[in-house]
Amino acid sequence: MSNPSLLILPGDGIGPEVMAEVRKIIDWFGANKGLTFDVTEDLVGGAAYDKHGTPLHDDTMAKAQEVDAVLLGAVGGPKYDGLDFSVKPERGLLRLRKEMDLYANLRPAQCFDALADFSSLKKDVVAGLDIMIVRELTSGIYFGEPRGIFEEGNERVGINTQRYTESEIERVARSAFELAKRRGNKVCSMEKANVMESGILWREVVQKVHDEEYADVELSHMYADAGAMQLCRWPKQFDVIVTDNLFGDLLSDAAAMLTGSLGMLPSASLGAPMANGRPKALYEPVHGSAPDIAGQGKANPCACILSFAMALRYSFDQGENADLLEKAVEKVLADGVRTADLLQAEGETPASTADMGDAVIAALADLS
Ligand code: IPM
Ligand code: MG
């Protein structure tokens, strides 16, 4: 049997440096766990634009469709701010999501014990927090037509369209219920059914999928604005949150910050099952390209490392090795290793990106 395949797209900003640490970890699993991947690396975002004049070359897109999983660093940076919208770095990522049909975006917000003091919220509000946001990723206002900037009379009008079909809502609702069954068995669905027809349909369809297929999972509905408020007030009331593309973008950033450390959070974007039964998948840290610290060895590689852990779990059926890697990250934090984003006191010397990667590898060795 051939090795599982992995396409690595480091991208822009801190993407390449955090990905370099993941490569070390992939090598560690190869040398110590007999887990060998066929790894290919390619360009995305601004890096692809610089070389090819497009943020995602067709060959790269084709490769992404073939591999078992894609691991992406980050895209974007001020250098590309002036580019035409159609070739902005973000378009490369959006094309991957759309053409691979990665409709379920899993964004865990987990508070690591060692970092509970780090949140802007009180410790008892966030300690032990473990929620999962399931964000619809291939439809809604990000992709709906009509869209554009048009002339209307003597001025311009900017238009985007929120649009959801029943089947698009059904499939992401199923992803959320399936996940909930393996966690706290609770789903809260968020929309704005009070002001949007797409929200009314969203609520109806989620309720129907629940009643017909997942009646034993606890389901509640919340308006997304109230949901944002509840996330800050008492986030531990939630287990799985399912919501649309735009609300999910906002709510997942808010949830991420509850944990105090955007540099720690991974994500998985999953599509329909492939021939091998595993979903099409792309894994990426929730943080962006952080151009202000790029190239300085300051970035925290943990979010990208934990994204690889999610790949082990969801794409490669390696739940035990995923647990091992997550425990290694937890141990490193408990031992007090801190990249610059995790420092609280002035005058402390931060661990570099490579120090953090090396510490995770040492912890992997200790724990296995
Ligand atoms: C995210 C990002 C992206 C989004 C950008 C980079 C296109 O904010 O993954 O949350 O808006 O989806
Ligand atoms: Mg976002």
Report on the architecture of this protein:
With 368 residues, the protein is α/β, with parallel strands linked by helices. The chain has two domains: 1-111 and 264-368, Isopropylmalate Dehydrogenase; 130-258, 3-Layer(aba) Sandwich (Isopropylmalate Dehydrogenase). The chain contains twelve helices and twelve strands. The chain has helices at residues 15-33, 46-52, 58-66, 89-99, 123-126, 166-181, 197-213, 224-233, 245-258, 302-314, 319-334, 353-367; strands spanning 5-11, 38-41, 69-74, 104-110, 130-136, 144-152, 155-161, 186-191, 218-223, 240-243, 266-273, 279-285. The strands form two sheets. The chain has a ten-stranded mixed beta sheet, sandwiched between helices. The longest helix is centred in the N-terminal third of the chain and has 19 residues, at 15-33. The chain is globular, with a radius of gyration of 20 Å. The protein starts with a strand and ends with a helix. Bound molecules: 3-isopropylmalic acid (IPM) and magnesium ion.
CATH class of the largest domain: Alpha Beta
Secondary-structure element pattern, one letter each: EHEHHEHEHEEEHEHEHEHEEHHH
The percent range for strand residues is 15-25%
Bound molecules: 3-isopropylmalic acid, magnesium ion
Which residue ranges are poorly predicted, with pLDDT under 50 across at least 5 consecutive positions?
none
In angstroms, what separates the terminal alpha carbons?
26 Å
CATH topology of the largest domain: Isopropylmalate Dehydrogenase
Fraction of residues in helix: 40-55%
Average of pLDDT: 95
**Major sheet size, sense and barrel closure:** 10 strands, mixed
Number of helices: 12
- Overall structural class, as computed from helix and strand content, comes to alpha/beta
Over the alpha carbons, how many angstroms does the gyration radius reach? 20 Å
Strand arrangement across the biggest beta sheet: 2-1-3-12-11-4-5-10-8-9
Please name the fourth-level CATH homologous superfamily of the largest domain: Isopropylmalate Dehydrogenase
The total domain count is 2
